[in-house]
Design goal:
One of its GO terms (cellular component) is collagen trimer. InterPro entries: Collagen-VI/PIF, VWF_A, vWFA_dom_sf. It comes from Varanus komodoensis. By secondary structure, the chain is an alpha/beta fold. The chain is built from 11 helices and 16 strands. The strands form 4 sheets. Strands 6-5-4-7-8-9 form a 6-stranded mixed sheet, sandwiched between helices. Strands 13-12-11-14-15-16 form a 6-stranded mixed sheet, with helices on both faces. Strand 1 and strand 2 form a beta hairpin. Helix 1 crosses helix 5 and helix 6 packs antiparallel against helix 7. The two termini are about 25 Å apart.
């Protein structure tokens, strides 16, 4: 059930799911890996984005409150609390989730269940709220962990959804563990082969239906708001590499609209104060054509003047397209420095690739390129424009995350506030 924002006149309607308390318990151990941990965070954000309004006040009797526990070895559990007064909107929740950093230690899943119940649910559960816990695990756990915590969440009316990912759940004993976490309710157990399945549109739809089966749509009687509040990557390090298709299919007018979009994005973000700044955003742009045609318009930089001057001098390649070679070139020349092999992207920053393309491209090196992105822990976003799209290629370069593909009918959409603001909120 895809939730589409409806409008009353010109004002956004609000989706309400009733009082909900939801706790996501996500695996942050070494066996998960950084890329899969990032997919877990995207899963949390994508699901919560479907649930309408977040309670403005944690003591409110209406609206959703969402908490997150990330777990690794004993004593390393970290939480976004259900009753955190700073979490009063989707944007503030999203920012808090993106700040969670991969712990990369051991795996004390069962103790994490007890921690989640005692620290988040037991202490702050609202009397009239429906309570859900969503547990994500790859099944690997420390044998020293306490088995008595297995069904800690199965009290007080908590509905537990257990999601097991990977080959561990082919073993009967691990399958039984997963069912026990879900309070012996088989219908609340979901097994997956890959973490990319977490962010598949079909699974997000399923979670939305589970958590909010009967939403109310309420339209406010308010004057129109001319501007939207947009998250701007403040206090969070992000290195963004744009890969712009310069093939003949795009056309020069559309190409100009695309590079104007890149400049508008740069002006909308809070850019880093220097290359050594551990916060905020830096941007790079690569135009690509055929297998050996790659133009670095500008490398990762915080300098808006340099970005603007470089874009003013950009020349359209008007060539063929090979996106696989472009990805490999970007990894070897923008993420790392070709001269000495040192990393150019900041090690503490989220590394994001943004593709502006229709996906019509040569297939050479594409599989190798996807592997290269995964090895660099790239978070991928695709801006897909036009009616003639190769969705198979777009899905591959989005690393299987359908929600990371932004489709629009033409390049004019890039400058429309609805599309632009949605993109900025996503990238931040």
């Amino acid at each position: 059930m895809t939730y589409i924002r409806e409008t009353c006149g010109c004002c956004d309607c609000e989706k309400r799911c009733g009082p909900l308390d939801i706790v996501f318990i996500i695996d942050s151990s070494e066996s998960i890996g950084y890329t899969n941990f990032s997919l877990e965070k995207n899963f949390v954000i994508n699901v919560v984005s479907r649930l309408g309004s977040i309670a403005k006040d944690p003591k409110s009797e209406t609206g959703a409150r969402v908490g997150v526990v990330q777990y690794s070895h004993e004593g390393t559990f970290e939480a976004i609390q259900l009753n955190d007064k700073r979490i009063d909107s989707l944007s503030s929740f999203k920012e808090a989730v993106k700040k969670l950093e991969w712990i990369a230690g051991g795996t004390w899943t069962l103790s994490a269940l007890q921690f989640a119940y005692n620290t988040l649910i037991k202490q702050s559960q609202r009397e009239k709220a429906r309570v859900f816990a969503v547990v994500v695990t790859d099944g690997r756990h420390d044998p020293r962990d306490n088995d008595s915590h297995l069904q800690t969440l199965c009290v007080g009316g908590v509905t537990v959804n257990a999601i097991g990912i990977g080959d561990m759940f082919n073993m009967p004993e691990e399958d039984e563990t997963l069912r026990s976490i879900a309070c012996d309710k088989k219908e609340n157990v979901q097994k997956m082969k890959l973490f990319t399945e977490l962010v598949a549109e079909e699974f997000i739809d399923k979670m939305e239906l589970e958590l909010c089966p009967d939403p109310q749509i309420v339209c406010p009687d308010l004057p129109c708001q001319t501007e939207l509040a947009v998250a701007q990557c403040i206090q969070r390090p992000v290195d963004i590499v744009f890969l712009l298709d310069g093939s003949e299919r795009i056309g020069e007018q559309n190409f100009q609209k695309a590079h104007h979009f890149v400049e508008d994005v740069a002006r909308s973000l809070s850019l880093a104060r220097s290359d050594g700044d551990n916060m905020n955003a830096r941007i790079a742009l690569l135009q690509y054509g055929s297998e050996n045609e790659h133009v670095v318009v500008f490398p990762l930089t915080h300098n808006l003047t340099y970005i603007s001057d470089s874009l003013a001098q950009i020349k359209y390649l008007d060539s063929s397209s090979n996106i696989g070679s472009a990805i490999i070139y970007a990894v070897n020349n923008l993420v790392t420095k070709q001269s000495d092999g040192q990393r150019a992207a900041r090690r503490n920053a989220e590394l994001s690739f943004v593709f502006i393309t229709d996906g019509i491209t040569g297939s050479r090196n594409l599989a190798e390129a996807i592997d290269a992105m995964k090895k660099q822990n790239v978070m991928s976003t695709v801006v897909a424009l036009g009616s003639d799209l190769d969705m198979d290629v777009l899905h591959k370069i989005a690393l299987g995350d359908q929600s990371a593909i932004f489709q629009a009918k033409d390049y004019t959409s890039l400058s429309q506030p609805g599309f632009f603001d949605k993109f900025i909120k996503w990238i931040c």
